[in-house]
Amino acid sequence: MDDFHTGQPIFVQIRQRLTEMILRGSVGEGEALPSVRQIAADLSVNPLTVTKAFEALVDIGVVEKRRGLGMFVKTGARAELLAHEREKFLKEDWPRIAAQIKALNLDVNMLLSTTAQGAEQ
Q1: What DSSP element (H or E) covers 112?
Q2: Single pTM value for the model
Q3: What's the distance, Cα to Cα, between the start and end of the chain in Å?
Q4: What's the pLDDT tens digit per position in 67-114?
Q5: Which of 33, 86, 95, 112 reaches 20 to 30 Å from 72, CA-CA?
Q6: Where do the HTH gntR-type domain residues begin and end (predicted)?
Q7: In this structure, are 86 and 45 located in the same domain?
Q8: 74 vs 4, 50, 81, CA distance in Å?
């Protein structure tokens, strides 16, 4: 689980993992997320790095800190997070991906059929 890549800061990668847990429903609304200490130990990272990942989720309003209890997923967090991640993808990732598709002269229909085939397997 601690297979980090160098393209992004570790706290961003941890934030993404926590985001995926919420979006997939591994941790439901109102439920506690794993503790900072637990994540830091599991991933062999500094607890401050994990705290920074949590703070990013607190900043967008999907996680709340309950003093003495830990971090909890807020009600409505999944829908809020989905909207946030979609907007972020369209603003940050999609322009780069679209430019690469164009530069490589790839056919969009071929890409979609390849994606659909991969999803069936």
Answers
A1: helix 108-120
A2: 0.77
A3: 24
A4: 999 999 999 999 999 999 999 999 999 999 999 999 999 998 888 888
A5: 86
A6: 8-76
A7: no
A8: 27, 19, 11
